[in-house]
Amino acid sequence: MVSDFLKHLFPRVVLERNLRLSYTFCLGGLAFSAFLVMLASGMLLLVYYQPTPERAFNSILFLESAVWGGKYLRSLHRLTSHFLLILLFLHMLRVVLTGAYQRPRQLNWVIGMLLLLLCVFEAYTGYLLPMDQLAYWATQTGMELLLTAPFGGFVRALLVPDGVGQPLSLLRFYALHVVVVPLSVSLLSLLHFYRVRKNKGVLPYL
Hints:
Layout: H1 2-9, H2 21-24, H3 27-45, H4 56-66, H5 70-98, H6 106-128, H7 133-146, H8 152-159, H9 167-198
């Protein structure tokens, strides 16, 4: 699986006609590239971020005002997250319009949907971390909306056991945003690219 993943990223042979923008628009590759930029910028942000209600906002202010390139780095991380979601939605739309979700690629379609949902959840967990007013009330609104869904109360209790913005909830959002969700996205991406190569009909040159 790892070998196929690397071969998909760095193919030995590519047909000239498949390099045209009208083929897949390279939306999947662009989305994965955005994910890698987010990983790199996020790891640099970890150097200064402090995941406690008392220090989170001040650590962001310090990053933007006292760290060389800090404001640029945070903006890069935030804007790349927007681009990632846009590219994923466009990629899914392309798959639907071209019928690429049909047999024998149903499993990869499900994996792709899981990746989309995970990336949306990743963006949501990251929204609370700055701990400013916008982050607090946006997360609070999301938690209240969650109560209307089946098992919403159970999920809300897992995410914010002590209330939005409190120490335990902030730590859980931090752990989800930094470790759990990125690792899940990475593993599913590996499986997604593996299935693309396994279903050779998607790319004629594989």
